[in-house]
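Help needed: design a sequence for this.
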């Protein structure tokens, strides 16, 4: 079968990761790369066509599909240009930097009829798919609640390398929590209301270093999420899955999903139930291991995008769905500042009208 000619917009940290995976993937042919640091990228990517202007990549290299890995504030502009050129897109998360730009992107994607995939790569882990299947089978009954943690200690160099990370918008809510929110929406269901508090006492930056959120799901489940980038713990999704070299593997579960008939930990998938399906606090609780092989989610994501581009399968996460994860995360940031409950139902409807 003919290879898919693909371009990459943005050759930063995540863009370079995509380029490495594409080089090893037999179903893609790199049409070109667009990055403002074109000379540096050309030196790093010998043999590749490199453009300083992404529009020249679209016009001259004429790719069938593009991976958008540019800075967040450029996602909508890049995606709209691809849509108008009839080019399918895999757009990195967050889908855009605001709900307004997300609505504009959604409208153009729908008008052009192109196929889209948002790069929330954790949906592609076999453990995530196994969890969704186990919940769907009713292994723990109706989900009652979720308890989750993402807590690690970012080093001082992290902030020195990019001073904006110590300013508003650079904290763990908007940088890190969006991954977790998307995972919860995928595994448990839509989130319809949030509350939150945040603190910056540890570093004293203008942005939070610790936050706690309350989540209400459409199916009636409730959730708590503790988030910090100044606490030493083994409880992050990255450490539990071993998906990133920057996070040494711990194998520890940072999620507990609790139901009427039992509990499942994630990502270990350890299941806790009572013998015979009993629901009685006087009965002992037994553990059962569930296994799912570890894979490279970025490779599986490329496999899925290939099938989406070819029309073989519907997108696991089109831009409309990615915008919902952005909506929830922005609402948590708002709730932490205002210290009030934020109902999301009207906001989902407004986002839908913008489509």
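Sure. Designed sequence:
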């Amino acid at each position: 079968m003919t290879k898919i000619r693909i371009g990459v917009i943005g050759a930063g940290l995540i863009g370079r990761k995509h380029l490495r995976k594409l080089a090893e993937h037999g179903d893609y042919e790199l049409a070109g790369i667009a990055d403002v640091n074109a000379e540096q990228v050309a030196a790093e990517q010998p043999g590749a066509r490199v453009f300083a202007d992404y529009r020249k990549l679209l016009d001259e290299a004429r790719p069938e599909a593009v991976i958008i890995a540019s800075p967040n504030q450029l996602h909508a502009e890049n995606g709209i240009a691809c849509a108008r050129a009839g080019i399918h897109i895999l757009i990195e998360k967050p889908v855009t930097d605001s709900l307004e730009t997300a609505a504009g992107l959604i409208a153009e994607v729908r008008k052009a009829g192109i196929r889209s995939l948002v790069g929330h790569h954790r949906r592609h882990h076999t453990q995530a798919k196994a969890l969704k299947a186990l919940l769907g089978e009713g292994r723990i009954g109706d989900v009652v609640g979720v308890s989750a943690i993402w807590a690690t200690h970012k080093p001082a160099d992290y902030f020195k390398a990019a001073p904006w990370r110590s300013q508003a918008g650079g904290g763990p809510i908007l940088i890190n929590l969006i991954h977790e929110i998307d995972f919860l929406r995928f595994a448990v269901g839509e989130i319809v209301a949030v509350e939150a508090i945040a603190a910056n006492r540890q570093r004293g930056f203008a942005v939070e270093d610790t936050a706690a959120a309350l989540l209400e799901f459409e199916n009636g489940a409730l959730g708590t999420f503790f988030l910090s980038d100044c606490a030493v713990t083994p409880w992050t999704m990255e450490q539990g899955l071993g998906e990133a070299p920057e996070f040494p593997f711990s194998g520890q579960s940072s999620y507990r999903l609790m139901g009427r008939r039992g509990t499942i930990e994630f990502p270990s998938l350890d299941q806790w139930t009572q013998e015979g399906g009993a629901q009685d606090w006087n009965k002992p609780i037994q553990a059962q291991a569930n296994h799912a092989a570890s894979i490279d989610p970025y490779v599986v994501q490329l496999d899925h995008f290939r099938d989406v581009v070819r029309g073989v399968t519907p997108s696991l996460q089109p831009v409309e769905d990615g915008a919902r994860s952005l909506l929830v995360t922005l609402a948590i940031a708002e709730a932490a500042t205002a210290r009030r409950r934020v109902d999301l139902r009207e906001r989902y409807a407004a986002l839908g009208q913008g489509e």
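The chain has twelve helices and 15 strands.
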